[in-house]
Design brief:
With 156 residues, the chain is mainly α. Helix content is 60%, strand content 0%. GO terms for molecular function: ABC-type transporter activity.
């Protein structure tokens, strides 16, 4: 069930990040109430980093066989996309932060999932030498009534 939900949630989460990355919509045209989406969009930082690595760093003029080429100067291209004052290192840093946050989130999600699976596995199949019932593990009075030592087993 969770896998089926994720097939819908992941694209729905990524779609606004792609739209407000600066690729489809220029960042100056983004409404003010959506500006925060451009700041958290990892697509934006990847796109900016790509454009800066190709057209930045004082690249020479592009070759053009036409009489007039609007984007002959790489600086003109960067100015048109409002990236002339951007710093490549900030884009790389933002992407590294995104990866770290995603990895930490994934770690805790998997840890929680493993803990839930381990808890249900222990209740069904027993714990060490004797079979336990989930109700017995949570109700010490029932454990004492059935002749056990009365000690409470806690989950790790």
């Amino acid at each position: 069930m969770l896998l089926q939900v994720s097939v819908f949630v992941v694209p729905a989460f990524n779609l606004p990040l792609v739209i407000f990355s600066g690729f489809f919509l220029n960042l100056r045209d983004v409404p003010t109430w959506f500006k925060w989406l451009t700041d958290v969009s990892y697509f934006r930082y990847a796109f900016e980093g790509l454009v800066l690595s190709v057209y930045g760093y004082n690249r020479p003029n592009l070759k053009c066989s036409e009489i007039y080429c609007y984007f002959k100067s790489p600086l003109k291209f960067l100015q048109e996309f409002e990236m002339a004052d951007r710093v490549y290192a900030y884009d790389v840093l933002a992407l590294v932060i995104w990866v770290l946050v995603a990895q930490v989130s994934l770690f805790f999600a998997l840890k929680s999932r493993i803990h839930q699976n381990q808890k249900s596995k222990d209740c069904r199949y027993g714990f060490k030498d004797f079979i336990l019932d989930c109700k017995k593990m949570t109700d010490p009075a029932q454990t004492e009534d059935e002749g056990h030592s009365g000690e409470m087993h806690h989950w790790p």
